């Protein structure tokens, strides 16, 4: 399940469920890179864009590459949650993170063992709509076949 965990994490790096996240400052503070924020200020960050930044992930940042999450022995190697922000970080890290991974793994294992999924039109461009969560514009049309 190490590779599956890496594949799911890589998917979340490129396609986070929440592509934009906003926080409200409860007190005056200074951000890690220096800017000051005041009580009542709103601070937003973009996990969708951060997952594609070359200075964070390297020159292959836009490539889907689950191997980036595996060490040389094939074991999953997590990144700092402030770098991989799909589940947030620090005191606000998602309490359901491990449960979410467990659910994704179970569903993936069961569905992929019984079915094959193919795009209905593999030539069609897939566009995303940023809302509260990430949507595929017009849906993702797939065909499902029994194995």
TrEMBL record:
<dbReference type="Pfam" id="PF00067">
    <property type="entry name" value="p450"/>
</dbReference>
<dbReference type="GO" id="GO:0020037">
    <property type="term" value="F:heme binding"/>
</dbReference>
<dbReference type="InterPro" id="IPR001128">
    <property type="entry name" value="Cyt_P450"/>
</dbReference>
<keyword id="KW-0349">Heme</keyword>
<keyword id="KW-0408">Iron</keyword>
<dbReference type="InterPro" id="IPR036396">
    <property type="entry name" value="Cyt_P450_sf"/>
</dbReference>
<keyword id="KW-0560">Oxidoreductase</keyword>
<protein>
    <recommendedName>
        <fullName>Cytochrome P450</fullName>
    </recommendedName>
</protein>
<comment type="similarity">
    <text>Belongs to the cytochrome P450 family.</text>
</comment>
<dbReference type="InterPro" id="IPR002403">
    <property type="entry name" value="Cyt_P450_E_grp-IV"/>
</dbReference>
<keyword id="KW-0479">Metal-binding</keyword>
<dbReference type="GO" id="GO:0004497">
    <property type="term" value="F:monooxygenase activity"/>
</dbReference>
<feature type="binding site" description="axial binding residue">
    <location>
        <position position="94"/>
    </location>
    <ligand>
        <name>heme</name>
    </ligand>
</feature>
<dbReference type="GO" id="GO:0016705">
    <property type="term" value="F:oxidoreductase activity, acting on paired donors, with incorporation or reduction of molecular oxygen"/>
</dbReference>
<dbReference type="GO" id="GO:0005506">
    <property type="term" value="F:iron ion binding"/>
</dbReference>
């Amino acid at each position: 399940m190490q590779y599956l965990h890496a594949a799911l994490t890589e998917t979340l790096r490129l396609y986070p469920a929440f592509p934009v996240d906003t926080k409200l400052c409860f007190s005056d503070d200074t951000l890690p890179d220096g800017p000051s924020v005041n009580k009542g200020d709103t601070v937003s960050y973009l996990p969708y864009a951060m997952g594609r930044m070359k200075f964070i992930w390297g020159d292959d940042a836009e490539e889907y590459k689950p191997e980036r999450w595996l060490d040389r022995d094939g074991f999953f190697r997590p990144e700092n949650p402030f770098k991989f922000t799909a589940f947030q970080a620090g005191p606000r890290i998602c309490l359901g993170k491990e449960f979410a991974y467990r659910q994704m793994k179970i569903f993936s294992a069961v569905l992929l063992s019984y079915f094959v999924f193919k795009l209905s039109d593999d030539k069609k461009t897939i566009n995303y709509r940023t809302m509260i969560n990430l949507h595929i514009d017009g849906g993702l049309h797939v065909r499902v076949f029994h194995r």
